[in-house]
Amino acid sequence: MPTITVSEAHRHIGQRVTLKGWLYNRRSSGKILFLQIRDGSGVIQAVLGASDNPDLFAKADQFSRETSLVVHGVVKEDARASIGCELLLEDADVIHQPSVDFPIELKEQTPGFLMDHRHLWMRTGRQVPVLRVRDAAFYAFRQFFHERGFVATEAPILTGTSVEGTTTLFELDYFGDSAYLSQSGQLYLEATAMALGRVYWIGPAFRAEKSKTRKHVTEFWIAEAEMAFYDHAMNLDLQEDLVRYIVTHVIEERGPELKELGQDVEQLQREVAEPFARLDYGDAVTLLQELGHDVSFGDDFGAPQEASLGDHFGKPVFIERFPVEMKPFYMKRDPADPTRVMAADLIAPEGYGEIIGGSQRVDTEEELVSQLTEAGLPTEPYQWYIDLRRFGSVPHSGFGMGLARVIAWITGVSHIREVIPFPRQINRLYP
Amino acid sequence: MPTITVSEAHRHIGQRVTLKGWLYNRRSSGKILFLQIRDGSGVIQAVLGASDNPDLFAKADQFSRETSLVVHGVVKEDARASIGCELLLEDADVIHQPSVDFPIELKEQTPGFLMDHRHLWMRTGRQVPVLRVRDAAFYAFRQFFHERGFVATEAPILTGTSVEGTTTLFELDYFGDSAYLSQSGQLYLEATAMALGRVYWIGPAFRAEKSKTRKHVTEFWIAEAEMAFYDHAMNLDLQEDLVRYIVTHVIEERGPELKELGQDVEQLQREVAEPFARLDYGDAVTLLQELGHDVSFGDDFGAPQEASLGDHFGKPVFIERFPVEMKPFYMKRDPADPTRVMAADLIAPEGYGEIIGGSQRVDTEEELVSQLTEAGLPTEPYQWYIDLRRFGSVPHSGFGMGLARVIAWITGVSHIREVIPFPRQINRLYP
Questions:
Q1: Which fold, B120-419?
Q2: Burial of A278: CB neighbours in 10 Å, binned 0-12, 13-18, 19+
Q3: Of A126, A365, A366, B387, which sees the most CB atoms within 10 A?
Q4: Do A172 and B177 touch (CB under 8 A)?
Q5: Nearest chain B Cα distance for residue A394, angstroms
Q6: Of the candidates B98, B146, B174, which has its C-beta nearest A391's C-beta?
Q7: Could you give the CA distance from residue B151 to residue B107 in angstroms, rounded to a whole number?
Q8: pLDDT tens for residues B320-350?
């Protein structure tokens, strides 16, 4: 008798199989018992009639939620089930039956309670399909670059230098010195790109921000790429291809999960089918004013403005060429208009906000030192970064993607803490 | 004229191409100029005769090391070259020529100097092939699990709990509370395995150890997996399959790099061809005594003992079933002999030391609480971890792999700081 997972069951129609999992839910008509069994790959319904096996019926009718089980039965086609089949139960061995009720109920509970029980909450409801979509999105991100000959690398987490000032950095004692938790691997990836050509990574980044919005956590996995010999236009084209690739591949590999989440897959496909919108920052300000927003040239866009732009275009929108004052020191200024940087943010549709920030990087020592100085930053800790402009500098570009926001967009989850296995927020370090 | 990378050149024999890269080295006979051009994917030799193009010859004869270039020429087959071809140079555009000498020389320099210039050192010598092997090893690790239906996940880096005591933890202020940098994602991956079945990740781990050996850094990427419904024997089989898969795939995908590193690929293949050795801890002590080591039952093995075991078998060796006193609280004791844990370390051959530590995990609340107490640890911060044994506990196992050591073994590099893009050591936080 083969031991299979729920996700494999549809390939075993008519066969007797063994499944290992947990009781997700149970209901009984008195005559027929329905056991929902989950194993991490999906949920299957096991069915047993009272007259088929009275002893097993009596035993299984007592299983409490999250009882761990090894069950045996025959897989039967069932077009009504989202996985296309159910299990005619023939036997069930209990591995462990909880002696108290499972605290996560199959109805609404407060976010605080759920977050306190994240380790148990993650077994229920949309949590499993969301975390499976997360896996597929991470995989697609890496596969995209792997197929294109990029080299995966890692930036250090512990650094002596800060990328964008020190106000939102976590600081720690490093054998008597100060170290900071990295906010971005970008500067290091630039160095690595000069050695390896084109590089990418997904790694943790930290922001000691006191923000409590639904788009902020203190620890998140940032996905970044840096490319030697890439200019601003090539950078945007690559980002657009990447976003389209991720959405398309997640839809392909996680169809049942998106269905379970009630997502409109066709809408997602429509959103990435056409070329993304590209808008000069100044034109974006004008458009937002026309749409009734109170914004002026030089303002950062907030969530309402980003949502408006997404709604207006119904697809991702690049906002390009920001005023230099709005952006960090490492971005290259437009030679045709030195008041602007050759940078772009990519705004997701449906109000999911900025999912990518990128730019061509400054590539001469003179510009870099001058822009560090303008930003009020010392040059000494950046000496290694300046070196990249002293020895064989090339035009180069890169970007950082907030994968959690991309996953929220794909899954339709409104708070990004639900797309992270164990999210960290200002008041949240447990479990 | 197609723009190609060095690694693609052998597919363009006879064609006129464009290449973008850096001058790695230059030599001239006065009549013929040889330019070694690197682009991160490999190194190609560009050749130019003085009589072919006197102007270009005079210009190119002045290129300094690390000059960034766009070169044009015809790819010519050359069996002597490791990449199988060279470039007949027709034109070269200088993007940036350094005004000072590149500090990394193509001869031996002190480790301290090289580490201070890690951002430049990584462009030279064996650094590029080693980092490309690293990419392939990370990819193979993930691909192994992806193909088997495991779900990729992430453990948090910031934690309020420590896994193995607090003496080697980096501590930081988290909005007024204490937080620690994770030493392992294991406990969190156990929770996730109860939701998703079988999970894995590669993520950073931190040890505030004052060790200065060639096998220790303070920050490293640990590769971990946790599996519900896996016992000790299944755990070992999976680890063995994984190590064989990684070595085999890296050899397949990075043949030119291993050749450049002078590695004996056939020896590597031999080392993983046969079933790995499996040795009871007690038998390992006896064997080491026979091999002349001064060790007693209950001792941890150090580098010399691990090297001896590797030499003796000429392949990876599992040391199994350690005395409980030697191992952490979360390991399951052998029901047949409660003085031993169902754990194993995997020792690499050639002196590369322990590359995997794993065990079946304790799976009853009673055992876990008792083992926490024996270890002198409080139960309260582990309440969520205890919960995993209260709600549908199952036999489960997992392991952590030191990928840097695996890469050192595959590449033949003796100090693991060379297989990490930007290593962190007790006295090393720059660049």
A1: BirA Bifunctional Protein; domain 2 (3.30.930)
A2: middle
A3: B387
A4: no
A5: 6
A6: B98
A7: 45
A8: 999 999 999 999 999 999 999 999 999 999 9
